[in-house]
Amino acid sequence: MNDEVKNNASKVEEQVRDLLEPYMQIVGISQSKNTLFFQGYWRFEDAPEHAEDDLKNAIGSLRPEIRRQDEKGIVQVSLNGQSQNDQKIWLHALLFFATIITTLFAGTLMEGEVPWPDITLLAHGIPFSLTLLLILGTHELGHYITAKKHKVDATLPYFIPAPTFIGTFGAFIKMKSPIMDKKALLEIGAAGPIAGFIITIPALFIGLQMSSVVDTAGLEGSIQLGDSLFMWLASNMMYPDLAAGQDVMLHPVAFAAWIGLLVTALNLLPIGQLDGGHVAYAMFGKRHKWIAWVAFAALIPLSFMSLNWLIWALLILILIRVQHPPIMAPEEPLSPFHRGIAWISFLIFVGSFIPQPISM
Fold first, then answer.
1. What is the pLDDT of residues 115-136, one digit of tens each?
2. Alpha carbon of 83 to those of 62, 64, 86, 120: distances in Å?
3. Of 33, 49, 78, which residue constitutes the final position of a domain?
4. How distant, in Å, are the alpha carbons of 32, 144, 246, 281, 332 from that of 181?
5. Residue 181 falls in which region: left (phi positive, over 0), alpha (psi -120 to 50) or beta
6. Residue 320 pLDDT class (50, 70, 90 cuts)
7. Is the pLDDT confidence value at 276 over 70?
8. CA distances (Å), origin 280, targets 86, 96, 315, 341
9. 36 forms bridges with which residues in the sheet?
10. pLDDT tens digits for 301-310?
11. Which of 14, 78, 234, 267 could form a disulfide with 275 if both were Cys (CB 3.0 to 4.6 A apart)?
């Protein structure tokens, strides 16, 4: 951010702070690109009858957006006088289309076909691509819909195409405004994993039904997929008479479900701004930092089992951070309903966790 932008932000912040003081007890100010967010508690009981209209008129030139939830509120103002809600729909569509192509390509290769130059062979990749994108998309839409429910400004999902053996690096949404309280934080954090899990489990059983039993003799040196508790239970339910020296060769649909479980576990680690970090912070408030550091430290010994955990730990340290940023009223108690959501998220995490995702 250059000096001119910083100076403008400081002037606007000072101006809006003075205008807001009669209406709001400001407890936090944050900035995202060209937008300032003022968080606090309304003084509307002591303000004129039409306080919200008066406030909009007072800072109307800054295109304010005012959100209320009981006594709490957020006032969002633009630093450049333009609305920040416009989304580049074409970019989301382009990334989604590209991810369809890359996952189709990956799924086709899993079926032993090379879709070039005959691109009609990409049809072989449909089961894998459709299942994986449905799981990832449902996960992100769970976040998006819940964010909108709580009037948090969020983008549509960004899908990330990649030249990997699964064709993608996943998907994500961006929160463009602060989350107001613990209830909203927990619901938004838990909605994605729970929604994705609801799709993953049926896909897992359908995929296992289409999988085949193979002899493990002669498979030495091939890639072995680790089992989560849910994967182990489902496999034993579908193949209870599996003999020694036999294993299940996963159908692409089952493999996509396996990826869904792995992604769910990674996201539910109680660290930083991961989904599990949101849930743990909502549950434990400021005590979350100890949980986050213990969870992060646990990734180090896990790295001796699989380098995947070392890579994930580095990504967290560089991009996500270990501690969760503060929100308003962090010690506010949660209802039994919301604590139930947190415990469901924890059980999904335990059941989806794969200590050694891939081995040779």
1. 888 889 999 999 999 999 999 9
2. 9, 9, 7, 44
3. 78
4. 18, 17, 51, 11, 8
5. beta
6. confident
7. yes
8. 32, 31, 20, 11
9. 31, 77
10. 999 888 889 8
11. 267
Say whether both 44 and 98 belong to one domain.
no
Q: Looking at 31, 46, 78, which one is the last position of a domain?
A: 78
Regarding whether 145 and 19 lie in a shared domain, the answer is no
| Residue, of 61 and 250, whose pLDDT is higher | 250
CB proximity list for 281: less than 8 A, separation 6 or greater:
182, 185, 288, 324, 327, 330
Q: Are 338 and 196 in contact (CB under 8 A)?
A: no
Please report which confidence band the pLDDT of residue 81 belongs to, taking 50, 70 and 90 as the band edges.
low
Average pLDDT over residues 189-193: 97
Closest to 208 (Cα-Cα) out of 183, 234, 245, 188: 234
Q: Which residues pair with 75 in a beta bridge?
A: 38, 66
Nearest to 200 by CA among 245, 126, 253, 143: 253
Q: Do 306 and 222 belong to one domain?
A: yes
Which tokens go with 115? 């879709």
Q: Are residues 59 and 184 in the same domain?
A: no
More confidently predicted of 86 and 327: 327
Could you list the residue range(s) of the whole structural domain that residue 240 is in? 89-359
Q: What is the pLDDT of residues 290-300, one digit of tens each?
A: 999 999 999 99
337 assigned to some structural domain: yes
**What is the pLDDT averaged over residues 18-24?**
83
Amino acid at 15: Q
Element at 89 (helix H, strand E): helix 89-110
Could you tell me if residue 84 is inside a domain? no
Residues contacting 232, CB < 8 A, separation 6+:
none
Are 226 and 354 in contact by the 8 Å Cβ rule? The answer is yes
How far is it, in rounded angstroms, from Cα 217 to Cα 360? Answer: 14
Distance between CA atoms of 195 and 204, rounded to whole angstroms? 15
Helix (H, G, I), strand (E, B) or coil at 56: helix
